[in-house]
């Protein structure tokens, strides 16, 4: 008999293939009881991996129809980064390096504008903490700390745009520039970089003191 994890995985794959199924249909496909299907569906609903809707029938009670949630759909393989790199290469070939640079600058400015309000009315240390939160929300797996000499050390253990950064160093330089704008200091140094073979991206950050 299949274990619980593999049965739930089979249910997810069934819903991916057929999009919408009833309990009876899923039980028939898997060769298990409807009660067993419902038990697994309860777990998947709890984990917000599936959604259900009631469909009215000509006769009898409304029927529950199940489908994958957006969160579950994201678990299937994607190749967004590979496609992005292909588009970037096409743009570079058609319009040249300047157009590629302009794309990164536009992204930098867009992100700065998006997060600008989150940096308002904060001390420098609070800004660093908020920057770490923003990057964590974007999937960068950030850790930060204040060092004994008063600097801040920020490390990113994941790069969601790694394939792009590996091909285009502008991604890294624009991230550095973005951090400078968000924190209001030019005194930021990148001492390690994932795209250059580092174990993580590491930034040393200092507050600029007014003269």
Automatic annotation (TrEMBL):
In terms of Pfam families, this protein maps to: HTH_5
Q: Which domain of life is it from?
A: Bacteria
Q: Where is the HTH deoR-type domain?
A: 4-63
A GO MF term = DNA binding
What keywords appear on the UniProt entry?
DNA-binding, Transcription, Transcription regulation
Checking CDD domains in the record gives: HTH_ARSR
Could you tell me which PANTHER family the record lists for this protein?
A: SLL0088 PROTEIN (PTHR38600:SF2), TRANSCRIPTIONAL REGULATORY PROTEIN (PTHR38600)
Protein's name according to its UniProt entry? Transcriptional regulator
Q: To which species is this protein native?
A: Fictibacillus enclensis
């Amino acid at each position: 008999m299949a274990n619980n994890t593999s049965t739930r995985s089979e249910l997810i794959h069934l819903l991916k293939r057929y999009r919408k199924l009833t309990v009876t249909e899923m039980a028939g496909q898997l060769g298990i009881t409807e009660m067993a299907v419902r038990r697994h569906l309860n777990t998947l609903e709890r984990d917000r991996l599936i959604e259900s809707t009631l469909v009215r029938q000509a006769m009898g009670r409304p029927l529950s129809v199940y489908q994958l949630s957006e969160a579950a759909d994201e678990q299937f393989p994607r190749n967004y980064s590979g496609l992005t790199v292909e588009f970037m290469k096409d743009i570079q070939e058609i319009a040249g390096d300047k157009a590629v640079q302009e794309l990164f600058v536009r992204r930098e400015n867009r992100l700065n504008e998006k997060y600008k309000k989150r940096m308002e009315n904060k001390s420098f240390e609070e800004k660093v903490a908020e920057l770490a939160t923003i990057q964590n929300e974007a999937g960068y797996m950030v850790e930060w700390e204040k060092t004994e000499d008063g600097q801040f050390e920020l490390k990113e253990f994941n790069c969601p745009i790694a394939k792009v950064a590996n091909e285009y160093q502008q991604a890294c330089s624009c991230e550095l520039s973005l951090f400078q704008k968000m924190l209001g200091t030019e005194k930021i140094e990148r001492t390690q970089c994932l795209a250059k073979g580092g174990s993580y991206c590491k930034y040393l950050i200092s507050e600029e003191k007014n003269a």
